[in-house]
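Letters spell out the chain; backbone shape is given numerically. Both lines appear below:
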Amino acid sequence: MRVQVANLLGAAAQYASPARMETLSEETRLQIVARAKETFANYESWPSLVPEDWWPIALPRKLISQQILDAGVLGQHCDIYPHTSVCESWLVWRTTRIRILSLMVDFDQAGSKDNVMLQIEQTADDILASVPFMLGSKCEPADMYDMDFVYPCLPGETVSVDHYRSAAAFGGLTLWIPLKTLLEHARHLRKDQMQFTQQQLRRIAVLYDVRLPVQDRTLP
């Protein structure tokens, strides 16, 4: 499956520039869209193959700590996963899904795009709902073993020491590529999604001392 996705994205990348897109023949467009739809259909099977306990649990906004809300939550819930590695697997799947769906929108000149656009927005929402799980309430650099901030958890449960350590070490870096991918496809996102993505990239840059490219240094 990874090879099929890589071949599709590689083929589409040849025509990524606006100048190439303008001169692209209808036949080539249709071929790429057909490959994208076939790849997407195969790729969609992944969630049905994962263990049931890998599926995220939605925590309603009213149950989320105010510290986490202040740090950044988009919408009415955030998602909780059994481990950061599981969250990472979902992020990889969703990030690739965004790329394939965006390709379908960009190359399909004649077909209806409403359903595909809705899928892009929903997938983006799912990616952004994982931000609190990975970053918690942390907004400033801290020691890996610092437990003076909070992560979302279900009522009656506590956050494990393992999650504090793994999220502190890898949470922001794991989110970096998915969030950058969303920004690359911002033309297909809602305004609130784009703004939240920019804010969280800036937050991660502060947490991990990441140097932003020149074009990203004006992110709000």
Q: What stands out?
A: The chain has a mean pLDDT of 89. The beta strands are 57-60, 77-80. The chain has ten helices and two strands. Residues 199 and 220 are 6 Å apart (CA to CA).
